[in-house]
Amino acid sequence: MPKPDESPDSGTEKKGITDSVLFSLIGYRLKRVYMQIQPLAQRVLAENDLRVVSFSCLSIITDNPGIVQSELADALQMERSNLVVIIDELEERGLITRKKIPTDRRRYALTATLRGRHLRDRAAAKVRTAEDEVLGWLDEDDRDRLLTILGRLERRTAR
Amino acid sequence: MPKPDESPDSGTEKKGITDSVLFSLIGYRLKRVYMQIQPLAQRVLAENDLRVVSFSCLSIITDNPGIVQSELADALQMERSNLVVIIDELEERGLITRKKIPTDRRRYALTATLRGRHLRDRAAAKVRTAEDEVLGWLDEDDRDRLLTILGRLERRTAR
DNA sequence: TATTGTTATACTCTATAACTATA
DNA sequence: TATAGTTATAGAGTATAACAATA
C-alpha cells in the first residue's frame, strides 16, 4: 500500500540534512509549527503595543468580566506573580479596570473597558489573519480536523 | 448539520472560565498542547542528563554524521552561538566527536560515538513513551492525521 | 492556617555584537 | 570580503521564595 506521495523520508531537508527520529516525535513537530506562527502573531500584536501574553490576558478578561488574577493565572497556566506587571500595564492603558470585591477584600475583579474590548476584537482579527499565512496551506477539512484533534489532546490538563 | 457532539463551547472550563476567542487561534492551541508534552519529555530526558535541546542536537548528529555546527543550527532553527556550549558538553561526555575537516579548516565534522548513538536511541524511545501519555487519547487514524497536517504546515519554512 | 496580590530574585532561553581563524 | 566557530552579554520568559493583607 503505497502512501499517496507525501514527505519522502522526513522533515527539514534543506541540504540533505535529515531529522527522521525527531520528526516522529509530536513535541518536536508541534513546536516547529508553533514557532512558525508565534512571530507572526507577535508582529501584528506589537502594532497595538500588545505582547502575546498581554493579549491573552486581555482576551480572557474580556470574555470573563470579574475574573480575579489567580483565576486568570490558572486559565493561562502561568504564575500569578508574573501576571502583576501585565495587569498593571493593561490597567494603566485603560484597557481593563480593577475593582475591589466587597465580600473578599483580598481579590480584585478584573473587567475589560469598552476600549479594551474593542482592542481585543481588532487584535484577535489581526492574529487570525496572520495565522492564515501559515494555515492557508490547509483546506477547510484539514483545519477542522486539526482543531478537533488538538481539542482531544487538550482535554486532560489536570490529569 | 449538527456536529457530532464535541467541545460544548470552548476550552479551559475549569470553573466557568471561558477562552472562546483564544480557543479559535491555532497558535494558542498548539502552544497549550506543546506545553503539555514538553515537561514530560524534559523529565525523561533529564534521567539521562539531557535537555530537550541537547537531545535534539545528539539526534540530528546521529542521523547526519559529519554535519557541521552551522548546518545543525540551521536544522534546529537556533543561533549557532547558542550551540557552542551544548556541543562542548556532548563532546566532553563522549557522546559525539569533533574532527577537523582538512578541506576547510574553519569547520568541524560532528559525529556521534557508539555511546552517543545508543543514548539517542534509548532517549528517543523514552520520549516516545512519555508522549504517549498525552497521545494515548488519540486513535491511530487521528495520530496519522495530526502528523500529516503538521507536515503540511511545516512545508513552508523558508517562505 | 490558607489564600490573594505583590515584590524581589534567580534561572533558563534566545538574540546580538564582536572577535579569530580561515576561506 | 565572507563564513565558521567562539565569546560575552543583554533581554525575554518563567519559576521560586517571602511578605502583608485578608479570609
From TrEMBL, chains A, B:
GO terms for biological process: response to stress. PROSITE patterns: HTH_MARR_2 (PS50995). Residues 23-155 form the HTH marR-type domain. GO terms for molecular function: DNA-binding transcription factor activity. It holds the Pfam family MarR. It comes from the Bacteria. This is MarR family transcriptional regulator. It comes from Paracoccus aurantiacus.
